[in-house]
Amino acid sequence: MSSSITQGRPERGPGGPPARPRQPSLAQLRAFVAVAEHLHFRDAATAIGMSQPALSSAVSALEETLDIQLLERTTRKVLLSPAGERLAARARTVLDAVGALMEEADAARAPFTGVLRLGVIPTVAPYLLPIVLRLVHDSYPDLDLQVHEEQTSSLLDGLTQGRLDLLLLAVPLGVPGVSEIPLFDEDFVLVTPCDHWLAGRHDIPREALRELDPLLLLDEGHCLRDQALDVCYEAGRTEGAQTTTSAAGLSTLVQLVGGGLGVTLLPRTALRVETGRSDRLATGYFAEPAPSRRVALAMRSGAARQGEFEAFASALRKEMAKLPVRVVAG
């Protein structure tokens, strides 16, 4: 607030420095602006729904607070003093700013409005974003969704630093200050060349992962690489067994399998998109319980929009029930 509005005559405390000047109230400013617009106390009071004595008292209190005469009162009319002319414009600016503040607060309280900065990992984005985007378009037209595709470590940094609001990724994360909202579990499947000995099987034992060479994986930094290795190690594969890291994305990885360079593991949600472009690929399914991963939303613990994010997760679960996944109850 400008000093031309707030500066009043300082009151000196006993033996001490001057006390902080009093601040004008919004009610005082509204009363003054109404009088400045109508130049009539009765009309001004009617315009803002205030009694005439209360309005007159508010304007007098403002003059006392500012230590300046704002109005020239006569028996016939009211005029603005030179100082009143100057300060009336400032007072209108203050009231307009407060009105804008209240409107913004109303908008912020409304769910699914404003900007939502969503981070998504690359092994989820191509397969789930169509569902997310359709849901937002159909159900939340006032939501400004901004999507950022990055690896898990970058997304978590963006979330904790406030650059991102919500993440869609594989869990568990085990990061302090980050809460997870589970969406679904999905199985891994084995993608092989058509002539592979496990091609087309629906009862592959996990133990088969011990000897699959070469196993094609994503580059370092992708959480799916770590998940695939964890599945293999749980099946008894030794850490020294051959792996070939030669792809930055699942599309390239699957093309390498089609070229006969090895086998790989894919999440079920990626299967149709990634294997539908080649007739040289086959799919093998694991015996139950199949190795799997969990996909969830992640947010800062205690986020102001937690209720909104949980409602968003509930809506996503309904849409993702159409996929080959096991939706997790909210």
Automatic annotation (TrEMBL):
Gene3D superfamilies: Periplasmic binding protein-like II, Winged helix-like DNA-binding domain superfamily/Winged helix DNA-binding domain. Residues 1-23 are annotated as: Disordered. Pfam families: HTH_1, LysR_substrate. Residues 24-81 form the HTH lysR-type domain. Keywords: Activator, DNA-binding, Transcription, Transcription regulation. It comes from the Bacteria. Belongs to the LysR transcriptional regulatory family. This is Probable hydrogen peroxide-inducible genes activator.
